[in-house]
Write a structure and sequence with these properties.
This protein is an alpha+beta fold. It is 51% helix and 18% strand.
Length: 102
């Protein structure tokens, strides 16, 4: 695999036997599946969920998630650092239960 540099952009030239983008799509799907399994374990045991884990459980985009938080329709995050937030598993469990029983 070669990396081509042009005007600040990086393109990965895949080998001939690999269709372009297949490896990256597979990696992204595998990562999402891994995050969903980890998030399910945290959700059942309690604890904190980071945004990628949360988005693996709830079918929303990041921008839609933040729009729901601003509108008060989704549990707000907890600050765990200067630039890091997470959601309490109990709040997410309650939100999912509320979706099932409106």
């Amino acid at each position: 695999m070669r990396v081509l540099h042009f005007a600040g952009f990086h393109w990965m030239k895949m080998s001939i036997d690999t269709p372009a983008g297949c490896a990256r799509r597979y990696d992204a799907r595998a990562r999402r599946a891994e995050l969903a399994v980890n998030a399910s374990a945290v959700l059942s045991a309690g604890g904190l969920l980071r945004q990628p884990e949360l988005l693996a459980l709830i079918p929303l985009s990041a921008s839609t998630l933040w729009a729901h938080i601003r509108a008060g329709e989704f549990p707000p995050p907890v600050k765990i650092g200067k630039r890091a937030v997470a959601w309490r598993a109990t709040a997410i469990r309650d939100y999912i239960a509320h979706l099932g029983n409106p």
